[in-house]
Give the backbone structure.
Amino acid sequence: MLSWITWNPSRVAFTVPFLEHPVVWYGIFFALGFLASYMLGVHLFLYEVFSKTSVKKEMVVDQNRLIELCRKYPKLFDKNQLNIESILPLLHKYIKAKILPLKFFNHAILHARKFATAIIDQLTTYLAIGILIGARLGYVFFYGWPSFKSNPIEIFKIWEGGLASHGASFGILLGLTLFIMRRSKEKLKFTFLHVLDVIAIFTGVIAFFIRIGNFVNQEIVGTPTNVPWAVIFAQPFGGETSVPRHPVQLYEAFFYLFLAALTYMLWKKNKVKMGEGVMSGVLLVLLFSFRFCIEFLKEHQGLVIQPQHALQMGQILSIPFVVLGLTLALRPIWQGKKLYKKSQV
């Protein structure tokens, strides 16, 4: 006889004193996902700031201090060319090659970190708003519209649950668009696809924490199964029966963590060599192809698509993102052929 895991933790982590407001584990994991992504984003954008050669002067708090420090390395820096324009490209090269310790220059280049933090603060604000609005509206229209259309005030009760990851993906694109529009008037500019590639790295991190939250909350459960690692959810959020099921939340969580590691390695090794948008395209194809397949192991969700339908709503919504991903991934090849044809004219 198989001995499956019975999973029945409390959905409430703690209650806020005096307010008597319960804080659920799902909300905590959701916040942890944003925090981890924020910290990773600061690291990523610190490099992105240094790569923008047109704003090198803005990246130094004390230029005299930097020149003074570089004088201590006469073999690396020409004393007759100790100016900001010549120092910073070499400094970045030497630090990257671990010839010079970054810690030694912290006082001189502290402003770069602050600037990177300011950028990720701004980006996080737009993305957080876009994700929350997109995820909620995605759930409303794609999964629960028959219920919400008769009682639209329920749409605003986001604290009662009901978010859709596909809607969150649309929200990311909207938030990024607003961010790019905001930065278009500033000196340090980023293209839409360039920032989308950076976002691709920590998208998997957020998704990992969210799915762990779903697991703790006993929601989005899998179909019944007899596999040895099956989990019996004692109180499924959707009211499903307590039988051994695929822990699909964990399948997704660890796949998303793998995607986060993969995209980070691609960024670190290739950076701009792949072409803007390629890494985002790879992520979209892998993520939503996996989402399409994993839906076969999930219980039916939502009121819009009936259980007897050939495809789940999550599968239908994944198809446009796979197409978008293929378009981005193959875009450099298409552009290369286009340029080649022009050169032959």
Observations:
- The CA atoms of residues 107 and 282 lie 39 Å apart.
